[in-house]
Structures are given as C-alpha cells and as structure tokens.
Amino acid sequence: MAVSTHGFTLSQSERTALNVSLGVGIAMLAIKWFAYLITGSVAIFSDAMESVVHQFAVAFAWYSLRVSYRPPDSEHNYGHDKITYFSAGFEGGLIIVAAGVIMVSAVLKLIYGTTIEDIGVGTLLTGGAGAINAVLGWYLVRVGKRTRSLIVEANGRHILTDAWTSAGAVVALLIVWKTGLTVIDPLLALFFGANIIREGGKLLRAAVSGLMDSTNPHYYEKAFAALEGFTQQNGVSFHRLRLRESGQRVYVDFHLLFPDGTLIENAHSIATDAERCVLRCIDLPAEVMSHLESMNGHSDHHDDEDEITAED
C-alpha cells in the first residue's frame, strides 16, 4: 500500500527561469565573443568559451526540465525524474571540457606571448556582461531552491561561475592596462580554468550521487523521527526504513510490525496513517509505501528472504 503527492506539473517559475536564462545567455555570448575579438585577451576568451558551453548546457536543461515532469508511463513506471541528474552531469562535463580548452590556450599564450588591444572597450563589455550574469545567476539559484529544482539551481550556479570568470577577466585587463604586464592575462586564465574544473566536479558529483540513489540524510532523519513518534503512539514498531531521491521526488518505504491477531482492517488503517505522517514531514512531491508484518516470526521470514536473494 502507498500514499503519494504527484507533482508532475512544470511550474511557471521554472519555465520562466530557463526561458530567461536561454535568452539572456545568447545575448551575453555575443557580447563576450565581440569583446574577445577586439582585445585578443585569453582571459576574455576563457569567459567566452564558458559561455558557449553554458548555452549548450542551458538548451539541454530546458529540454530535461520538461521531460522530468512527464508522468509515469508503460516504459517508465517511476516517471522521468532521473533525467535531472543526466542534465547536471552533462553540464558538469561540458564545464570541465571548456576549462581544458581555456587552460591549453593560456599555456600557449604564455609560451608564444600575447598582445591585447582596445582594453577599455573590452573591459566595459566584459564587466557589463558579468554584472548581468551575476543578477541572472542569483535569480536562478533562488528559483531553483524555492521550487526544489536541481536543473534550475545547477544552471544558476553555472551562471554565477561565469560571472566570477567575467570579474576575473576584468581584473586581468585592468592590471595589464596599468602595468603593461601582458603575462598576467594568461596566468589568470589558468586560475579561472582550475576554478571552473572545481565547479564542474561539483555538478558531476551531484549527478552521480542521484543516479546511485544516495540517501538524503536530512529527509531520512525527518522520516525516521516521524515514524518513531507515530509507532510509539499506536503500539506498533517499524524497521527497514529506506529513502531515495529521484529528481524532485522522494521515495520512502518501510516495514510496519503489528501485534499478533491485529485485524487486517485495523492494520491497513494504521499503515495508511503512518504513510501520511511521513508524507507530511517531507516538503517535496513524494511516494511513501509500507509493508505490513506480524511481530511473531518476522525475523525468520526475513532470514529466508535473504537466503533466497543470496542463492539467486
């Protein structure tokens, strides 16, 4: 038996957030590449390269968000939530690839030298793009946290990383402008590349964790506390509590142990109340399922199950 909250509807906030991200991102990409073409700065190149990657990632996130809200069907009985982790992993992987391109370009500039032109215009364009991205990134992270959307939040964090890269490029240009030390430009680009790899690694770890059904300790503790209080009040006990996240949904299951002779009607009613108790403590769309058992001999029954599983 089970109770659930479905949550298979794409919210207007999420739809708007990614539409805005896609539109603004295209404009920022054009500005940054123009700034690179007129300056030749490898720091600005690193910023522009990350924007290229980001646009591919946003396009995939835009598609993934819509797929993740499709309800279960005959081929995907548990829904399509896990595409969330593919989206985060795809974005993380692209970020790391872009960082590699940036760092190779920076090393080549260190070896063969670099010439930077039109520093003033390049600084203004890059700084303006960075400021817009900072506001956009903050907005996306805020929407992602409020709607519990990993896709939107990951997109926002990527944009904030992009904004920091822009800020660093501006700093590099200003230092070169004041000192004439063009070597500062590729050195800072190497630093940006290393930071971008770190951010990409975070997204990849989040994706792997989700695909491997890692338990969320926060929700597990809440579910455990809710069940513990409920069973103490109703004269039953529980064990085998399990919890996993899949995108924006949480799946919980547990075993309820009833005194011998409990009527099936009473056991069913108590189990339903227990499931609803757990459901109320989780602030995400969730499905909670219980398995009813008698206290007498349940350990022997599970030992037999374990032997069968081991033999299979």
Q: Low-confidence stretches at least 5 residues in length (pLDDT < 50)?
A: 304-312
Structural class: alpha+beta
Number of helices: 9
Order of helices and strands: EHHHHHHHEEHEH
Number of strands: 4
- Determine Rg (CA atoms, Å): 26 Å
Number of domains: 2
What report would you give on this structure?
With 312 residues, this protein is an alpha+beta fold. The chain folds into two domains: 2-211, Alpha-lytic protease prodomain-like; 217-311, Cation efflux protein, cytoplasmic domain (Alpha-Beta Plaits, 2-Layer Sandwich). 71% of the residues lie in helices and 10% in strands. It has nine helices and four strands, in the order βαααααααββαβα. Strands 1-4-3-2 form a four-stranded mixed sheet, covered by helices on one side. A hairpin with a 2-residue loop joins β2 (237-246) and β3. α5 (150-179) packs antiparallel against α6 (184-211). The longest helix has 30 residues, at 83-112. The two termini are 26 Å apart. 41% of the residues are buried. The model is unreliable at 304-312 (pLDDT under 50).
